[in-house]
Amino acid sequence: MSSLKINKRKIFNDPVYGFISISNDLIFDIIEHPYFQRLRRIKQLGLAHLVYPGALHTRFHHSLGAMHLMGRALSELKMKDNEISTRETTAAQIAMLLHDIGHGPYSHALEHSLVNHVNHEEISHLFMQRLNTEMNGKLQMALNIFQDNYPKHFLHRLVSGQFDMDRLDYLKRDSFFTGVSEGTINYERLLNMIQIADDAPAIEYKGIYSVEKFITARRIMYWQVYLHKTVLVAEYMAINLLRRAKWLALQGEKLFATPAFRYFLENDISGDDFTNRPEVLELFSQLDDFDIYTSMKVWMNHPDRVLSHLSKALVNRHLFRIEMQNRAFDPEKEEIIKEAARRCYQLTDEELPYFVFHDQTSNYTYQPGTNKINILFKNGSVKDITQVSDQLDIHMLSKPTTKYFLCYPKDIGVPGS
User: Which residue segments constitute the domains of the chain, with CATH numbers given?
Assistant: First the structure.
C-alpha cells in the first residue's frame, strides 16, 4: 500500500500581513518540528499582557512573520539586480525563522535565574546545529548566515542588525497586539526602499522619513511597552520568584514542577552544559510558559512565604509598587522602605531582597558604529542615518537612556508613598 505524499505547500493566515505562504519543503519540515512548535507555547512579550491584555501573541507568530519579511526583502533586492540564489533565499529565511528558537519561557527572567551565563542567541545556535544534524546538513548555509560566516554578509545583517527583519516584525507585530499605535511603522515602504551597498543593507534616500519613523517607533515601544515600569516590576518579580524556587530546590526542597522544569531548578546549568551534554538542550526544548505558570499556581500554597507571596502576586496581578526616575535613589529612602517591609512581613535579612529591590535599565534607541543604518544616495554614496537626518536629534537618540527603579510591596505603609 503506497503512502500519500504530504502536501507541504501551506498558507498561514497572519493577522498582521495576511496570508504567509510556505512553498519550500525544508522550511515546512522545520516548522513542523517539535523544537519549533514549542514557540507556540511561549508568549512573545512575556508578562506584558499584565499591562496590555492583547499582548498574547507568541514567538511562533513572530518567527513566521520575520521569515515572511525576509522573503519580501530578498524578492525586492533580486528585482533590483542583486544576485541572490534560490538556495541563499531559503537559507536566509531559515536563519530568520530560527533566530529566536532558543528563547525560553519568560525568556529574560529565565536567563537571569535558571541558567548561568547563557543567553537565547547561544541556545538558538545549538538548536540550529541539532536540526542541521537531524536534517543531514541541509541547514549549513543557514547556520553560516546566522553566524555571519557566509561571504554575502548583508544576509546576516538582515537577520541581525539595527535594521533587520527581526526588528521590523516585532515593532509592527507588538504595536498591533498591544494597541500602541505610536509604535506602528511603514514596513512596506521600508522594504520597497531596500538596497545593498558595500555588502550591507541600505535604504534609498527617498525612504529616509520611514527610517526616522522606524527609529522613533522603536524608542516609543521600548519605554511604553518593553520597559514599561509595570512590565519591568512584573519581570523582576518573576526573576526573584525563580531564584527563590531554585534556591529552595538546591537546599533539597521538593517543589512541584514538571520533570524538565525540575531539572533546571535542581541543577546549576551553564553554557558548557548546553554544549557538552545533549540531554540539557533536549530538556530545555520541553520548557514553555505552561511549565512555569502551572508551578506558580501550585506554589501559591507553599509554606515558604517568599515563594507563595510572589506566586500569588504574579498569578493574581497584585504587583509591587515601582518608582522610576533618572537618577539613583537615595540610600536613606531605600533603608526606610526596607525597614517598613521588614516590619510588615516579619522578614529575615535573607528574605528582604525578594521584597525590596532596586536596579537600573538602559536602552539605546540607535547605536552608531559598524552595524548601522545606511542611507543610499542616487550618486551611489552611503551615509549613516545620523549624518543625514534633519528631522530628529539622532545624536541624542544614539546615547543610552538610563532609568533607575525601586520596587516594594504596596501595602507596607511607607510614609509619603
Answer: 10-228 (1.10.3210.10)
